[in-house]
Amino acid sequence: MKIGIIGQGYVGLTISAFAGKDYDVVGFDNNSKIVNQLNLGISHIEGVASSTLQTLINNGRYLATTLGSQISDVDIVVIAVPTPLTRERKPDLTFIQAACKTIGENVKSPILVINESTSFPGTLRNYIKPAIEKYSSASIEHMYAISPERVDPGRMDFNQKNTPRLFAGLTPEASKLTRDFYSKFCDNLVEVSSPEVAEAAKLFENTFRQVNIALVNEFAQIAHSLGISVYETLEAANTKPYGFMKFTPSAGVGGHCIPVDPTYLAAVAEEHGAPATFIRRANAVNLEMSKYVVDRIQADNGGSLSGKCVLVVGIAYKPNVADIRETAAELVIQHLRERGAVVSWHDDVVGTWNSESSAPLSGADIAVVVTMHDSINPKDVIASAPYVFDTTGKLKGVHGL
Ligand SMILES: NC(=O)c1ccc[n+]([C@@H]2O[C@H](COP(=O)([O-])OP(=O)(O)OC[C@H]3O[C@@H](n4cnc5c(N)ncnc54)[C@H](O)[C@@H]3O)[C@@H](O)[C@H]2O)c1
Question: Which residues are catalytic?
Fold first, then answer.
């Protein structure tokens, strides 16, 4: 079987690496730089080793391409393209639309189309199917299924094999083929009664985290105002063996899953006249955390940050990845600069970002820790400035949430 995977980013390349053990994989991506690197066996994703890619290439199992014609004879196509928000923070399905155009224009016989991109309930049925049909010849009737991706890049304990995978087809045959496809590399497949349930479950999983993170971020502010340790209180609450799940405070949320996906759920809820109060409020609390952190630092430093050299430590949105999408560090830096601070950042995992490079971990007036990669030595952070504010709870003996 030949599998086409549209989008070779975090999700698409991860699936390519797993599927490549059993199938021939064509990884289609419209970024030629990524495609060229992949064909040289160089992975750009944490969690997919270059050696794995090289083995697949050597075995003739993997080819990356920018040419739609290369997917003309695939048996299954998987869509793994971005689903961001528009400037107005509304769901942006333009990448999905473009992927559908590629499929419709190039695939010449009926196949199974599986969407792994995260989107609101109804996307498969009401957007993807009609969009592909619009570009396909009238005689071709594809099958359609959804299997929302749950991958957590950089995570070692859960991967494609041992993370249960939800799926549903638009028809029983599509469901069966989807199960057959994933069962080669995933141990636990969970079929649900409709694509809409699978789409909604994915959004609800991420919304659950978003709301709980916002709650603990709000609680961090309450604890500080009461003069008690948020971390000690959370540890104490966590001794309850049931009915409590520990989340930890931070400078805000980043990546795609937490800042973006719940807004997809809120948008579709509001379109149907249902409230999305928690989601909207949680988003606001998480966004406001960066300002709260800078307010605290300013208050601790004589009420002014003007002219102070501030080093932001860790700008990736989470430890041990180079991903800076929606990172809270961006808002922290923005608030600091608006108050006249001279800001640089240290993050050797990211390296360069917004035409700036990672600065040495030393010589600052103030250091603000946003993300602690394993490669950062806590002692070096503590020595980098006379005042250190840690938003991660990982450093001992410094200021923090
Ligand atoms: N990254 C995660 O941890 C994660 C986890 C679960 C679900 N998801 C979801 O999976 C989807 C993909 O996310 P990602 O993190 O892999 O994104 P990504 O930005 O890492 O990768 C997307 C890739 O798609 C390519 N692309 C964009 N438009 C294209 C097109 N029309 N044709 C071909 N290639 C195209 C881009 O060049 C890029 O390489 C999103 O819906 C996201 O919400 C992501």
Answer: 257
What sign does the dihedral 68-70-72-74 (CA atoms) show?
negative
pLDDT class for 399, splitting at 50, 70, 90?
Answer: very high
The C-alpha atoms of residue 151 and residue 15 are separated, in whole angstroms, by 9
Please tell me the distance between residue 289's alpha carbon and the centre of ligand 1 in angstroms: 27
Hey, how many other C-beta atoms are within 10 angstroms of the C-beta on 309?
Answer: 15
Query: Of the candidates 301, 303, 262, which has an alpha carbon nearest to the alpha carbon of residue 285?
Result: 262
Mutate to test the pocket of ligand 1, among 16, 26, 35, 81 (most ligand atoms within 8 A of CB): 81
- In the reported structure, the alpha carbon of residue 205 is separated from the centroid of ligand 1 by a whole-number distance in angstroms of 19
Within its chain, how far is the Cα of 255 from the centroid?
Answer: 4
256 in contact with ligand 1, CB cutoff 6 A: yes
Phi-psi region of 307 (alpha: psi -120 to 50; beta: other; left: phi over 0): left
The average confidence (pLDDT) of the chain is 96
Q: Could you tell me which residues come within 8 angstroms of residue 354 by beta carbon, excluding any fewer than 6 positions away?
A: none
What pLDDT score does 139 carry?
84
Q: What is the pLDDT of residues 288-324, one digit of tens each?
A: 999 999 999 999 999 999 999 999 999 999 999 999 9
- Residue 279 CA to residue 287 CA, distance in Å, equals 12
Rounded to 5 degrees, what are φ and ψ at 138?
-60, -25
73-105 per-position pLDDT tens digit: 999 999 999 999 999 989 999 999 999 999 999
